[in-house]
Amino acid sequence: MARSQALTGILFATGGTAIFSVNDVAIKFLSAGYALHQIILIRAIVAMTADRVIGYRGNLPWHLTEDLAFFKKTTSGHPIVMGRKTYESIGRPLPKRRNIVLTRDLSWKADGIEVIHQPIDLSKLPDIEGQVFIIGGAEIYAAFMPQIEDLLVSHVFENYVGDTRLPSFENEFPQSEVIESHQAFKVRRHFRANSLPH
Ligand SMILES: NC(=O)c1ccc[n+]([C@@H]2O[C@H](COP(=O)([O-])OP(=O)(O)OC[C@H]3O[C@@H](n4cnc5c(N)ncnc54)[C@H](OP(=O)(O)O)[C@@H]3O)[C@@H](O)[C@H]2O)c1
Predict the structure, then answer these.
(1) Which residue's CA is the closest to the ligand 1 atom numbered 21?
(2) Which of 37, 59, 92, 114 qualifies as a FRET site for 24, CA 20 to 30 Å off?
(3) What residues does each domain of the chain span?
(4) Tens digit of each residue's pLDDT (9 = 90 or more) over 110-138
């Protein structure tokens, strides 16, 4: 994300934390009184088939080692945000990442997990900064879609039976570029019309 992009707007500006849809323009906001550490770039990462399947019976429908490796290398060191159902399917916090779970259940808690109850609460967490990855599932992608700067989508070539599908995002993110190719899938970065391609 070291290349220039057009500013698409301030998404949240609450409690002193600003979420911008770009990072290269951060310097402009330093002069506006924001410190660099206060800026959040929200990205989504997901794997889906051509018919939009992302899950089946609470789990991933496939086991793609190279996609898990892409997920790990991309998200490691950054906060990740997931729905309560996806967390329960993983069953533990993912290491080397700040794990944040979205649930409406005010009493829900789990070791090693920070809990939020609505998307706007993300910006109110202490010391949240830099890239933050929305890692699913379908409900959470939908809930954060207006705030997402770009989506890293592993387009899985084979079809799988599924019961959970990624909501349509293509109208809002009409531009894309291939960033990795593998035997079973290709990773595309999908971005908004007012962002410049990398
Ligand atoms: N292919 C992929 O890349 C990928 C990635 C992630 C997950 N998945 C798959 O997706 C499936 C799970 O997806 P899902 O859509 O069923 O569940 P989910 O998005 O993981 O979690 C849904 C839960 O999140 C909470 N939630 C949703 N919207 C909320 C809001 N606006 N405010 C507060 N809380 C909210 C609710 O929790 P409460 O019920 O506790 O209130 C809701 O039941 C699984 O099969 C999983 O394996 C696939």
Answers:
(1) 83
(2) 114
(3) 43-127+134-191
(4) 999 999 999 999 999 999 989 999 999 99
